[in-house]
Write a structure and sequence with these properties.
Blueprint (H helix, E strand, L loop, with lengths): L2 H25 L6 H12 L1
Length: about 45
Amino acid sequence: MDIESSGASQATLVLLTLLSLSEREIEQGHFRPVESVFADIECCDE
């Protein structure tokens, strides 16, 4: 495997790991409604 392929494989593995962790967090109820997140962004953007 060349360096480019290795880097792409590592990036893919990292993204799949993040997706898996995110799914677990959502299943456990560790998330905020999108409206709440955007309200915070709008509040701090001014």
